[in-house]
Amino acid sequence: MATELKSVLVLGATGVIGQYIIRSLIEAQASFDRLAVFTSPSTVEKKAKEIESLEEKGVQVIVGDLTNQENVLKAYEGSDTVISCVGRNMIKAQIDLIRWAEESSPNIKRFFPSEYGTDIEYGPESVFEKPHQAKLAVRNYIKSSIRRVEYTYLVTGPYADLYIAKLSQNPCLGSFDIEEKKATLLGSGDDPISLTTMNNVGKLLVAALRNPTASRNRALRVNSFTTTPKRILAEYERQTGTNWDVSYTSLDDLKKLEKNAWESGDSLAAIYTLRRIWTEGGTIYEFTDNELIGMHPEDLDSLEDAITMAISSNGQEAFRSGDL
Ligand SMILES: NC(=O)c1ccc[n+]([C@@H]2O[C@H](COP(=O)([O-])OP(=O)(O)OC[C@H]3O[C@@H](n4cnc5c(N)ncnc54)[C@H](OP(=O)(O)O)[C@@H]3O)[C@@H](O)[C@H]2O)c1
């Protein structure tokens, strides 16, 4: 009988993308027997309202330490699927989480490692990109050592919400400032880029769970829409009813800035690299896997929707510390 993924445990459910993922799972609750999150005592204390709201919505909250095998194995009890949304500094720690599932939790059938971003195996050069190393180590571990537990890598490309936002700290990295009506476009402005709204990351994840055979043991390359920096600007100008001030950071300049950032130990260096990869076309495919998991353009946000949401929330910063 084909695998059914019905009892889901989320790690990192109160994080940047975890919040969207748990929200979509709650919306689709009827498809699942059980939803649970595993979180730390400090999150329970600091984010008491969010945790309470999850419990009110029928989500079981399990508290413990993600690096403690006994705590994690206890949390795995009663689940068949683990959705990891842990942040960048916990990516490599997932190797233990996957090993414990493989060796000691026969009920865990599928693990979704924390991906939800740039395709770390896009092409031959990907293996050398510094920001990809931790996620590549997780994939290599799965390839070499995991035989029973299935995996799905949900590769969404950049989040639309962040790419079309302002980056006041460093606008030369690409920025759309709704208040000032000012944009800095990357590359020529005509280079295509595929984006996924954070709402759609959750929706696509639920679609992957509902299509367990199609999503089994593979990277799913999905997105909401494909656009260009100039088309994003044109849509902002249309919806705000005015022309914006525009400047550009060419691909060559972006590469120079990226090199300097790594050499000077800039904490944003990984963001320079990711934005260079996206500008070079590292989010573009002949075909996506949207249809494979039953997702059609009408199920997903459009550029117009993303810009409407950005304007109605009055623009947010493209990233906070730690978002990559
Ligand atoms: N495509 C994009 O544009 C984009 C942008 C940002 C991130 N991402 C990707 O999305 C994934 C999740 O990133 P995120 O930014 O959503 O993560 P985040 O908000 O930084 O962290 C997510 C969660 O990780 C959990 N965690 C547990 N122990 C931790 C520790 N020691 N240090 C840090 N976190 C710990 C926390 O869970 P609790 O909630 O239980 O406390 C935290 O809320 C990553 O793979 C990242 O690369 C993609």
TrEMBL record:
Superkingdom of origin organism: Eukaryota
Cited InterPro entries: NAD(P)-bd_dom_sf, NmrA-like, NmrA/Isoflavone_reductase-like, PCBER-like
Keywords: NADP, Oxidoreductase
SUPFAM superfamilies named in the record: NAD(P)-binding Rossmann-fold domains
NmrA-like domain segment(s): 6-260
NADP keyword on record: yes
Pfam family, one: NmrA
Gene3D superfamilies with a match to the protein in the record: NAD(P)-binding Rossmann-like Domain (3.40.50.720), UDP-galactose 4-epimerase, domain 1 (3.90.25.10)
GO molecular function: oxidoreductase activity
PANTHER family: ISOFLAVONE REDUCTASE FAMILY PROTEIN (AFU_ORTHOLOGUE AFUA_1G12510), NMRA-LIKE FAMILY PROTEIN
Protein name: Isoflavone reductase family protein
